[in-house]
Amino acid sequence: MKNALSISHEIISKHLKEGDTAVDATAGNGNDTLLMAKLVGNTGIVYAFDIQDNAIERTRKILNENELEHRVELIKSGHQYMDKYVINEISAVMFNLGYLPGGDHKIATKPGNTITALKTSLKLLKIGGIITIVVYYGGDSGFVEKDAVLKYAKQLDYKKYAVLMMDFINWINCPPILLYIRKLK
Ligand SMILES: C[S@@+](CC[C@H](N)C(=O)[O-])C[C@H]1O[C@@H](n2cnc3c(N)ncnc32)[C@H](O)[C@@H]1O
């Protein structure tokens, strides 16, 4: 059985096409950025945000190793400021919430910034465009953010957005949840 992260990769892989513009709102180790950089081809672009130097450097490294750095704009800034950097319409945005694996658990995504970035993403998204959000919670963090993101997603106008949530309800230890939003009009 796949997990939330691998399902998000499947969704993005089916959706993104050559020439598309995409955003990785939380670059981290660069795995999501790399996936999107492969998919948008040489005529597309990925904007990848992270607030930590080591996340930006890890992402740069993985892109270099795959000779794909030219397809990505790496931005050391919070995703809440996305609209300062991204001006064109976007086809897909990936959020992978929480802290950098192997990093400081205190430097994690925050509900207020995440909601601001989600609002901006919905504005920048083209009709038919999608957002995937992998929500980590449990252990020492993430509960407040999970509640805030679900509350925000639930009140989105159903005529404008379709919102799907996937949750492994019988798994133990708070497995991550996947939210999948599509802009309908
Ligand atoms: C779970 S990791 C992301 C994993 C990543 N997508 C990957 O493929 O490896 C979450 C990342 O969000 C970053 N982050 C926290 N607050 C942020 C913010 N306001 N804007 C952008 N990134 C943020 C953290 O520094 C951390 O690297």
Describe the protein.
The structure is a single chain. The chain has 185 residues and is an alpha/beta fold. It has a single domain (4-183), classed as Rossmann fold (3-Layer(aba) Sandwich). The chain contains 6 helices and 7 strands. Strands 3-2-1-4-5-7-6 form a 7-stranded mixed β-sheet, with helices on both faces. Helix 5 runs parallel beside helix 6. Bound molecules: S-adenosylmethionine. The site of S-adenosylmethionine has 22 residues, from helix 2 and strand 2.
Could you please say which CATH topology applies here?
Rossmann fold
Count the domains: 1
Structure classification: alpha/beta
Bound molecules: S-adenosylmethionine
Which oligomeric state applies? single chain
Q: Quickly name the level 1 CATH class.
A: Alpha Beta
Number of helices: 6
User: Which regions are unreliable across 5 or more consecutive residues at pLDDT < 50?
Assistant: none
Annotated CATH architecture: 3-Layer(aba) Sandwich
End-to-end distance: 33 Å
Which features does this protein show?
185 residues; alpha/beta; Rossmann fold; 7-stranded mixed sheet; 7 strands; binds S-adenosylmethionine
Strand and helix layout:
Elements: H1 4-15, E1 21-24, H2 31-40, E2 45-50, H3 53-65, E3 72-76, H4 82-85, E4 90-96, H5 111-124, E5 125-135, H6 143-154, E6 161-166, E7 177-183
Bound molecules: S-adenosylmethionine.
